[in-house]
Design brief:
Bound molecules: guanosine-5'-monophosphate
Distance between the termini: 17 Å
Oligomer: single chain
Shape: globular
Largest sheet: 6 strands, mixed
Number of domains: 1
Helix content: 10-25%
Strand order of the largest sheet: 4-3-2-5-6-7
Length: 181
């Protein structure tokens, strides 16, 4: 049996479901920005590492001139529970002043990581900032972070795959899954 079909994994969102939703988000983003960018390009910022798969698929569904940059964050403490204390471990490669920015995240759980990041990015004076997140656990989002482009609202379970890890593994699963044991 292959790694993707292990007995202790169950599928929450299939690769097909994810692909269809990502395509719809890309179309929506394209429509929203098409008259807004002028001669400028959209700056898509992926949050490392978890967003790399979502970002790769999403940007290919955005029919606009864009550039991709990355920022890396790590939250201190327990790997499965956000502490709200966030460290910026790798910064953007270019300034974003005056730019239209789309932050691309894998999952908003408590929202604390994203609240910290959005506050940090706002101080750099972009023209606008919007947030795309593949997943959100709405019952946990205590920071009140607003997801402008949401893939799926899910219940409060620890998910893996499509970029999301458990102890650094499972990022390569083509679907969003649950580890059952
Ligand atoms: P927050 O600060 O919103 O509580 O946490 C955000 C980060 O925690 C996400 O970017 C992700 O790295 C991690 N995280 C939260 N929930 C999950 C989950 O269900 N699965 C995985 N793999 N990571 C999660």
């Amino acid at each position: 049996m292959g790694f993707f079909e292990q007995k202790n994994l169950s599928v929450m969102l299939s690769a097909e479901q994810v692909a269809a939703r990502v395509a719809a988000l890309g179309e929506q983003i394209t429509r929203d920005y098409v008259g807004k960018l002028g001669a400028d390009e959209l700056v898509c910022i992926g949050i490392l590492k978890g967003s790399f798969v979502f970002l790769a698929d999403l940007v290919r569904r955005i029919d606009l001139p864009l550039v991709v940059d990355f920022i890396a964050l790590s939250s201190y403490g327990d790997a499965t529970e956000s502490s709200g204390v966030v460290q910026l471990t790798q910064d953007l490669s270019r300034p974003i002043a005056g730019k239209h920015v789309l932050v691309v995240e894998d999952i908003v759980d408590t929202g604390l990581t994203m609240k910290y990041l959005l506050e940090n990015l706002h101080t750099r004076h972009p023209a606008s900032i919007k947030l795309a997140s593949l997943l959100e656990k709405p019952t946990k989002n205590q920071a009140g972070v607003k997801v402008d482009y949401l893939g799926f609202a899910i219940e409060d379970k620890f998910v893996v795959g499509y970029g999301l890890d458990a102890a650094s593994r499972y990022r390569n699963l083509p679907y969003i899954g649950l580890v059952t044991s």
